[in-house]
Design brief:
With 218 residues, the protein is α/β, with parallel strands linked by helices. The chain has helices at 14-24, 37-45, 50-65, 79-87, 99-106, 122-135, 148-155, 159-168, 190-194, 204-217; strands at residues 3-8, 29-34, 70-73, 94-95, 111-116, 141-146, 178-181, 200-203. The protein folds into 2 domains: 3-97 and 206-217, Rossmann fold, CATH 3.40.50.1860; 99-204, 3-Layer(aba) Sandwich (Rossmann fold). It contains 10 helices and 8 strands. 48% of the residues lie in helices and 17% in strands. The chain is globular and about 45 Å long. It has a 4-stranded parallel beta sheet with strand order 2-1-3-4, sandwiched between helices. Strands 6-5-7-8 form a 4-stranded parallel beta sheet. The longest helix is centred in the N-terminal third of the chain and has 16 residues, at 50-65.
Length: 218
């Protein structure tokens, strides 16, 4: 039974990814580490500095010390820090939150829409998407809409408002070929989004679970 360490920067990311594992890979032994000062500190500094990168390396070290066969970070604003942690643990899969979702989206179309709820994550995600598309010689273009009020509602415990605001954001996109729900926490809005968008919808936790399972079972 593979042991997967989930490293969270916000508590609202936990339930959606646990649900994805229960649905798509129930055999995995899933453990969670929550360090919820990371998001607040990033918002305060406005940038990923060396100190933040070192914190991510230590979190990955701890996960490996607990016997993790794979690590999945669930907050999408820390790409560079996660890459540094992954470089030090190349013997196991260490996934950024959206790598798997971006890979699937690039296989599904050229006009890709994304709905985000945590604005500081967008520059990191845009960079990662552009780098992945360039490496594939893909001509895909990503259009992003951010709905920060949805994250605020979810943090206050109002899931219904969160889901409705995410679904409403579909109308701001120019009919993409595939739609990505950016944050792990946004995955729980999928049912509402399906009522407004009839094409393919990807969520970061479901895509990540599929990729981790493939990597560890191959």
């Amino acid at each position: 039974m593979p042991r997967i360490s989930l490293i969270h920067a916000t508590p609202v990311a936990i339930e959606p990814v646990i649900a994805a594992f229960k649905s798509d890979w129930p055999e995995a032994d899933v453990l969670s580490l929550l360090e919820d000062s990371l998001s607040a500190d990033l918002q305060a500094t406005g940038a990923l500095d060396d100190a933040m990168v070192e914190r991510f390396k230590r979190l990955a070290d701890y996960a490996v010390d607990t016997g993790a066969d794979g690590i999945l970070f669930t907050c999408s604003a820390f790409g560079i820090a996660i890459e540094a942690a992954a470089a030090e643990h190349a013997s196991i899969p260490v996934l950024k939150p959206n790598d798997a979702m971006f890979e699937e989206a690039l296989n599904m179309g050229n006009r890709i829409g994304m709905i985000a709820t945590f604005e500081p994550s967008i520059p990191s995600m845009a960079r990662e998407f552009e780098e992945m598309a360039s490496a594939r010689n893909a001509t895909a273009v990503m259009e992003t809409v951010c709905v920060p009020d949805a994250m605020a509602a979810l943090s206050a415990g109002d899931t219904a408002t969160h889901n409705q605001l995410v679904a409403d954001a579909v109308d701001q996109l120019d009919d993409p070929d595939v739609l990505m729900l950016a944050q792990f926490s946004t995955a729980q809005a999928r049912a509402d989004v399906e009522g407004r968008y009839s094409k393919s919808i990807l969520t970061s936790p479901a895509s990540a679970v599929r990729k981790l399972r493939k990597l560890l079972e191959s």
